[in-house]
Amino acid sequence: MQDYSEAAFQACLLPENTETYSLSEARTSSESGDLLDIRYDWNKIPVPSSLKEFEKRWSTRQNPLDYSGVWRFRELFPFAPESQIVTIGEGQTVLQKNDGVAKYAGINAGGLFLQYEGMNPSGSFKDNGMTAASTHARMIGAKITACASTGNTSASLAIYGGVTGLFQVLVFVGSGKIAYGKLSQALDYGALTLQIEGDFDDALKQVRRVCEEAGIYLCNSVNPFRLEGQKSIMYRVLEGLNWEVPDWIVVPGGNLGNSSAFGKAFMELKELGLIDRMPRLAVINAAGASTLTRMYNDEGLRWNNGQPDKQLISEYFRRMDEQDGRAVTLASAIEINRPVNLTKCLRALDACDGVVRDVSDEQILDGKAQVGRHGFGCEPASGASVAGAKLLREQGVIAPSDRVVCILTGHQLKDPNATVAYHSGDKQSLARHAAVEPHFGNAPIAVPNDFSKIMDAIRQYSS
Ligand code: F0G
Question: Fewer CB near the terminus (10 Å): N or C of the chain?
């Protein structure tokens, strides 16, 4: 692929606003203040006639662009000249068929798959997006990049800055609001790390202002290029299923970047004739951070042909501000009350006949424990997808015979404190939003430094 960036442009998400912007602009909103979308003139781009064509790149993986699990699909988001692409080998992920978790969720054997994004270089799905945002930052010559984060975005941006040396990285995190594994990454990779007294929503507000005033390149998911990279998670899911579209994609919802990107990926594949039907999308909030659930299920907010009720949204947030409504969940990655991609997610839900649910911290941690017991493990927020699949199955929305893909967004080692607290039955540490009763705990057993007592313990506890 040469340079097809001429065929790409930025546009306002909402169809009523027809303004467009060139790729050389680093914007985070349109003139009307709405989200931006990257669009393509597909007629000018040599998109393969079948998704199977992309498999050929497995045999040319010495080329870093073909090795990348993101850029090997580059014709599906061709905004960058090849010479500008920034890759660190992201996207080497696995779609794991998991009958243990299927049984837990009430889905037939062979029907549940875990898409494990923890295998990315920084241990979360964020690298899919950060490779794309870093590429755009390089295209426009940015020297400093920044983000606010509940931990994974900052780890990801920091690793791209550290490995490539292309830009200095500035990260804003809420003080005490980030799991240690993630904080340790930002520090280790050399990011300038500001701990803001406040939560993610506060940190995002501040970083947006700083970027605006100081001309710094913003890498949160309001950056539309990031979401282009995150579409590749869905391409790899399809590839793992031999290009068959599953019945359901279940994903945790925080700032709603992933769900928005997934919807866009499928809309485009359908438009290009590369898939014949759409999967359904389930977005799962934590109960203590359930803005989408409240607005979608209780207030009836919808995409509404590109005219979402903005008044309803601003009124909801006005009330939330008035009451200083704070997100509270042990799944710190999704402890977000003001999701920036709300309207874009509405489009995805509309395109994919979506549903939205919230699940308690107890359901999240039990789901996570099941993934740990049967799969590669994951961080708390990722457990929401399994908990959501189980809930939707119980409610009869998902059928036992459906093919369901749960997205595991982050690595098991991101938040060891939550895992150890769960297995040790440390309910005090777990009680963030509501009490948590661990149903699948596997507590360590304290034994004296004595051979016979150790043997006794093994006899007593082994099954
Ligand atoms: N899962 C994990 C592990 C995350 O880190 C995040 C978001 C999400 C799910 C939610 O994804 O925002 O696309 O809906 N983490 C961000 C961060 C906010 O700063 O790392 P989303």
Answer: C
**Secondary structure (3-state) at 70:** coil
Q: How far is CA 380 from the centre of its chain?
A: 13
The atom number, within ligand 1, closest to the CA of 378 reads: 3
Residue 2 has a pLDDT of: 63
Rounded CA gap, 385 and 395, in Å?
15
pLDDT digits (tens, 9 = 90+) for 336-353: 999 999 999 999 999 999
What CA–CA distance (Å, rounded) separates 450 from 57?
Answer: 57
Element (H, E) at 283: strand 280-286
Answer CATH for 94-121+227-430 from 3.40.50.1100, 3.40.50.150, 3.20.20.370, 3.40.640.10: 3.40.50.1100
CA distances for 378 relative to 120, 270, 366, angstroms: 13, 31, 12
Ligand 1 neighbour 383 (Cβ under 6 A): no
Domain boundaries, the chain: 94-121+227-430
Spacing, Cα 126 to ligand 1 middle (Å): 8
Single pTM value for the model: 0.98
DSSP annotation of 32? T
Q: For the chain, how big is the Rg over CA atoms in Å?
A: 22
